[in-house]
Design goal:
about 140 residues; mainly beta; Porin; 9-stranded antiparallel beta sheet; 1 helix; about 50% strand; globular
């Protein structure tokens, strides 16, 4: 009985939602090189429930959907020991959905963002944002 209680206590420690908030700084890549300087992308992930969202800078948002904001919810989040991958719909026009993908290395903290239909991409290094600690 005692072993069962210890097992239950250890298992319940892992059942809490693991939230991960990241600030990623990097550059936009184009087929035709154009320097935008360093930009930031913010990721908010709930690793326990495989959900989250991404905040994109205006340079990565198509002109026709900029009035809808810069936050996009992930449709598919896959978490492994080495990486986190996710996808989201950037735009939807009729039957065509512009799917964007992210790949985040849990080892190096490197984020790669791609979109099949757009020529832009993003690569950057991410650092964890401590939301429980207030800066001000």
């Amino acid at each position: 009985m005692f072993k069962y209680l210890i097992f239950l206590a250890l298992f319940s420690l892992n059942s809490f939602s693991e939230e991960l908030n990241l600030l990623c700084k990097g550059t936009i890549g184009w087929v035709i090189e154009q320097d935008f300087g360093e930009i930031t992308v913010t990721l908010n992930l709930d690793l326990q429930n495989n959900t989250g969202d991404i905040l994109l800078p205006p340079q990565l948002i198509p002109f026709q959907v900029r009035n809808k904001g810069n936050r996009f919810d992930f449709e598919n989040v896959n978490v492994s020991d080495e990486e986190i991958t996710a996808s989201f719909v950037l735009t939807k026009t009729g039957l065509i959905k512009s799917i964007s993908n992210i790949r985040l290395s849990r080892v190096t903290g490197r984020l790669d963002y791609t979109n099949k239909y757009r020529q832009k991409g993003f690569s950057g290094d991410c650092s964890k944002i401590e939301t429980k600690k207030k800066k001000f």
